[in-house]
């Protein structure tokens, strides 16, 4: 049974002063297996961060369900929600803004342990050691640490309730390249040592490839393609995925690359979404059916799902 499941998640935000709504999530569904890392990739504004906040119940979905080990988190409130939410924790993009500037690191970690009644002697030092920080960092304030060290503290704080799922929302994008590599290696180590399932959210296809077992590509609040990362990157089914892949720099430019156009144009207005497939105004392969009908996210190949009329028809003719 999947550890974490999202079923048809929809999120709408009212527009102040009008009767319009922002379409942030438009029916997102996926499943995460125990110990698996799912990468979620897409442009800014595609709904990745909104999805993360809904998954941990920082925001309630307008429609849909989030199941953690078979328990519907969207139906829980109060004490029952807190008891289950400890098993799914989030690491935010900016570690400085997510830490109290006047609270020492040790006190921040101890506060989480106290909330979940997990205090025990030496536990703060254990958490610091797990993320590669010496025990004396317990006395430091956030401004006394580097960005990479603060992010390690953010990871330690997320690990304090002993979660089963870790959500990482652009958690390394603000770091220098060398520090980013260190944190990515730490995440891989935590997965191997603790058996943590992870949802790794990023706009960077290269980083998602480095850490993920499977990839879900999001566009305009929907998953438009999903599958094993090797398959998705080697042979994208959706034109948007192909465009994202084409935008990834190649270390050796002498190696021949497929002539795939990068994604051009702008994301549609989320208050007034286009009819049919939301990608059709930017798609080089768009047909009349794309402008009229919303394609479902369907299995096109074994273990591969895509929401594309053209890809579905092409695969059926193979």
Automatic annotation (TrEMBL):
Q: Could you tell me which PANTHER family the record lists for this protein?
A: D,D-DIPEPTIDE TRANSPORT ATP-BINDING PROTEIN DDPF-RELATED (PTHR43776:SF7), TRANSPORT ATP-BINDING PROTEIN (PTHR43776)
Q: Supply the Pfam families for this chain.
A: ABC_tran, oligo_HPY
Q: Which GO terms describe its biological process?
A: peptide transport; transmembrane transport
Recite the UniProt keywords alphabetically.
ATP-binding, Nucleotide-binding, Transport
CDD domains, A to Z: ABC_NikE_OppD_transporters
Traced from the root, the source organism's taxonomic lineage reads:
Bacteria, Bacillati, Actinomycetota, Actinomycetes, Pseudonocardiales
Which SUPFAM superfamilies does UniProt cross-reference here?
P-loop containing nucleoside triphosphate hydrolases
Is the keyword ATP-binding in the record? yes
UniProt cross-references to InterPro entries, sorted A to Z: AAA+_ATPase, ABC_transp_ATP-bind, ABC_transporter-like_ATP-bd, ABC_transporter-like_CS, Oligopep_ABC_C, P-loop_NTPase
The superkingdom of the source organism is Bacteria
Query: What species is this protein from?
Result: Pseudonocardia hierapolitana
Similarity-based family: Belongs to the ABC transporter superfamily.
Instruction: Give the molecular function GO annotations.
Output: ATP binding; ATP hydrolysis activity
Which residue ranges does the record assign to the ABC transporter domain? 4-245
Q: Gene3D superfamilies given for it?
A: P-loop containing nucleotide triphosphate hydrolases
For the keyword Nucleotide-binding, the answer is: yes
Protein name according to UniProt: Peptide/nickel transport system ATP-binding protein/oligopeptide transport system ATP-binding protein
């Amino acid at each position: 049974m999947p550890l974490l499941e999202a079923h048809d998640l929809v999120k709408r935000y009212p527009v102040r002063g009008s009767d319009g709504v922002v379409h942030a999530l438009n029916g997102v569904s996926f499943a995460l297996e125990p110990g698996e890392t799912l990468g979620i990739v897409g442009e800014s504004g595609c709904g990745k961060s909104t999805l993360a906040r809904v998954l941990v119940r920082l925001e309630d979905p307008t429609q849909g369900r989030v199941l953690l080990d078979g328990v519907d988190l969207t139906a829980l409130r109060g004490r029952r929600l807190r008891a289950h939410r400890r098993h799914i924790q989030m690491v935010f993009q900016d570690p400085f803004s997510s830490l109290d500037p006047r609270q020492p690191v040790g006190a921040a970690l101890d506060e989480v342990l106290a909330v979940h009644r997990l205090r025990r002697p030496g536990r703060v030092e254990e958490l610091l050691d797990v993320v590669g920080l010496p025990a004396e960092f317990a006395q430091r304030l956030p401004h006394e640490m580097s960005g990479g060290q603060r992010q390690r503290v953010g990871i330690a704080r997320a690990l304090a309730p002993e979660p089963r799922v870790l959500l990482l929302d652009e958690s390394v994008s603000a770091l220098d390249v060398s520090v980013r590599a260190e944190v990515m290696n730490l995440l891989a180590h935590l997965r191997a040592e603790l058996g943590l399932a992870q949802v790794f959210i990023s706009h960077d296809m290269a980083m998602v490839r480095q850490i993920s077992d499977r990839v879900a590509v999001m566009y305009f609040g929907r998953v438009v393609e999903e599958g094993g990362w090797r398959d998705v990157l080697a042979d994208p089914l959706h034109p948007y995925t192909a465009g994202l892949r084409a935008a990834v720099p190649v270390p050796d430019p002498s190696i021949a690359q497929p002539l795939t156009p990068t994604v051009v144009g702008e994301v549609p207005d989320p208050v007034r979404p286009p009819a049919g497939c939301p990608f059709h105004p930017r798609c080089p392969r768009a047909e009349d059916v794309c402008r009229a009908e919303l394609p479902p996210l369907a299995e096109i190949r074994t273990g591969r799902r895509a929401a594309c009329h053209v890809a579905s028809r092409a695969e059926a003719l193979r």
